[in-house]
Amino acid sequence: MSNLKEILLDRNSCKSIWFMRQAGRYLPEFRKIRSENKDFIKLCLNSDLSSEITLQPIKRFDLDSAIIFSDILMIPYALGQNVTFTSGRGPKLSKFDIKTFLKKSGKDISQNLSPIYKAIEITRRKLNKKKSLISFVGAPWTLMIYMLELKNSHSSKAQVKINFKEEEIQIIIKKLIEFCCIHIKKQAESGCDVVQIFDSWASKIPEDKFDKYCYAPNREIVEFCQKEKIPSICFPKGIGNRYKTFNEVVKPNGINLDYDIDPLWAKNNLKDVVLQGGMSPKLLLDADEEMFAGATKYIQIFKDIPYVFNLGHGLLPETDPDKVKKLIEFYRKFK
Ligand code: CP3
Known about the structure:
Elements: H1 4-10, H2 28-36, H3 40-44, H4 47-61, E1 65-67, H5 74-78, E2 83-86, E3 90-93, H6 98-103, H7 106-112, H8 114-126, E4 132-138, H9 140-147, H10 166-190, E5 194-198, H11 210-227, E6 232-235, H12 242-250, E7 254-257, H13 263-269, E8 274-277, H14 288-301, E9 307-308, H15 321-333
The protein binds coproporphyrinogen III (CP3).
């Protein structure tokens, strides 16, 4: 097993496994803490509990990397939007006000999110040195989807209606790039060695704006990470064969495949990058044989190139933790 940072920087093909949403509702030990902490944002800002939750899946499964327990919506929260979660309905943010937003500065991020940086310091101290600690941000478009309430439909194919002028959108994206970079740098200074950039709603970008809202902001953030020597993994979920242009234009160290991407296509088309993930999290709800067959496909196809085992989206809340254990054992024993 190898440190994720080494794999991303040296592109060696040592084995490594972690899961998106590895700390979450499928774990009884998480649900216990969550039931005692009804306010999710406050929980993310409780440094000791955030660190404890981050380490829960490491203790249980000895995964190779930990991902700090937080949320992409901590940036809108730090910028003054109220964020609440009602079960089954997803996050709800208070109304976006552009005038208030434009008055915000990097200090609002570094000060309001300081408990996250403290949680990272605590976790780094407790974590075995061989293991990576992953930080993350939401890409500007995906943050905007939540901040401006653009997501009018759950279908990833449905397009969004934007009630803002193009110039205003450009200004919002530019500022969000700046805020993401500050958050990434602070997380790295506190002890994270890799960053994952989630563009979970990239599939909703109007085609004629794809360059401006997807490639360009992700590229600027990745360039910043390169300058700061922070290895980056991008996850532009749902963009189909535009993964190829994304990789060529944005040039991250790693790229997470979603479950719609054919792994063979990825191997042939995504070059000079470490591939990660891809397997559908739904396979963990199936019988062992089907789950192992799904995993085998990815392991076989990527056996000669640098590949980090993970999924095509986060672990589902209904996943049985024993299935996760079996999958990790299967991967580690695979010859
Ligand atoms: O273990 C980890 O992966 C680290 C923690 C993490 C969370 N959210 C914790 C969380 C990470 C990396 C995220 C990222 C995130 N958050 C994304 C990008 C990845 C993706 O899923 O596409 C997005 C879009 C969000 C926004 C968000 N946060 C949503 C849509 C929800 C509600 C969905 C749900 O599962 O209820 C959240 C809440 C959230 N973030 C939970 C967790 C563990 C569930 C909170 C609960 O206990 O109710």
